[in-house]
Amino acid sequence: MFLYALYGEILSVEMLNPTLLGKKRRWQMLFQLLVLVISLGFYSLIFYKGIWTDLQGHIYQLQEMLEGRLIRANFIYYLLIYLVGLGQNNFYALGAASIIVVSFAMVAKYRAAVHYFEWPLHPGSQYTLFAIIGAFLLVFASNLPGPDHYFLGQINPNVWHNSTTILLMPVAIILFTRSYQFFAIGEPNRREAWILTGLAVLSILIKPSFFFCFAPVFPLFVLMRFGVKRSFWWAMLPVVIGGIVLAGQYYLIFRLSPSLPDAVATEASGVQIAPFLVWGASTSNYIWSLISSLLFPLTFLICFPQFIQKTSALTYAWVLFLVAMVIFILVAETGDRALHGNFAWQAVVCSFMLFMVTVRDLLKLIPMLQGDPLNKVIGWRVKVCLAVFSLHVIAGVVYLGKILVTGSYY
């Protein structure tokens, strides 16, 4: 219940000292700095202790790209660490650049989550500090330990070992937020459609995972909201242009790259439909893996089913997650990379969206705890949801410790 106690303490201080609201920027900068310091420290320890993660793997891939033996169509991350590493083809320089890039990406994810929590609310409301702290805790939330592994087989809302997914997260959050605004608030317009197109293309060039879910789900919600009108066709713009970019990526990764001279032997050759191939290799109990991954969103859904509405953000997040799981369950790569789980990353991204929307909806209910006898039943449910979310946060902190102690993110 530490999260409930923390929230209650901050609310009482805020009520006693209304000027605290004027210090919102300082609070946000403080927690932003905490995310940065923790991230820099964690990834520095990862390299210092020699713990293998995708950060090191992506450095070697960049070096293969510089040597002409590999093509990466999702090139944004590699370009960033190359530029931050001052154009040096040196593992240590690129390692330092990787630490900097992923740490600032974690900060960007926190900032994007804070923005999502705050955008529909009055800037002077008491929710401001809730949003800042809620977003901070959300960055560290994790699945509960699974039946076979702490991480593998579960759908973790946060990933600390895969650098391209980390860089994708803030862009995906902004794309989620703005796409929801597109069909939920006001009348969509051409300018917003082009902004969504730019975000979609950027997300694909970082990592195409989230676009796999966005492409079928976003037009569906626009169609349910407005029907087959001009708004729907504008909504198809990011899907069509993003699909063209994605087709180009497929050609480069699975057709052109393996034909390069001295191409890496493990390069995948294609995509296959293989139900439960990847997930079944990581868990012996699908039900427990899902429960351990989604206990908080499921608890909130049971306690407050009224938040599921035709075009609510929670419904949008749930549908995105369900589509992500269908892709994860059915699709795998062929060849040597069949069990690498590269079609699982969209489930991780969409899990974070689901946690984020659920936390925001829960924050809107917090004032009901403050001395209103008419809301005792609702207040009890809020406390249960806060307790379950606290478990996910504690599990996330333990998970980071586990990585550093055992040397494995599994």
Describe this protein's structure.
With 410 residues, this protein is an all-alpha fold. It has one domain. It is 68% helix and 1% strand. The protein contains 15 helices and two strands. The protein has helices at 2-16, 24-48, 54-66, 76-84, 91-118, 127-140, 163-184, 190-206, 209-226, 230-256, 277-280, 286-303, 313-330, 345-363, 376-406; strands at residues 271-273, 331-333. A two-stranded antiparallel sheet has the order 1-2. α13 runs antiparallel to α14. The two termini are 28 Å apart.
What order do the helices and strands come in, and which of them pair?
Blueprint: H1 2-16, H2 24-48, H3 54-66, H4 76-84, H5 91-118, H6 127-140, H7 163-184, H8 190-206, H9 209-226, H10 230-256, E1 271-273, H11 277-280, H12 286-303, H13 313-330, E2 331-333, H14 345-363, H15 376-406
Antiparallel strand pairs: 1-2
How many structural domains are formed by the residues?
Answer: 1
Largest sheet: 2 strands, antiparallel
Identify low-pLDDT runs. Answer: 1-18, 262-268
Roughly what is the average pLDDT, rounded to an integer? Answer: 87
Q: Count the helices. How many?
A: 15
> Going across the major beta sheet, what is the strand order?
1-2
Report the strand count. 2
User: Based on CA inertia axes, which overall geometry fits?
Assistant: globular
Rg over CA atoms: 21 Å
Q: How large a portion of the residues is in β-strands, by DSSP E?
A: under 5%
Kindly state the percentage of residues in helix: 55-70%
Cα(first) to Cα(last) distance is: 28 Å
> Can you write the helix and strand succession as a string?
HHHHHHHHHHEHHHEHH
Structural class: mainly alpha
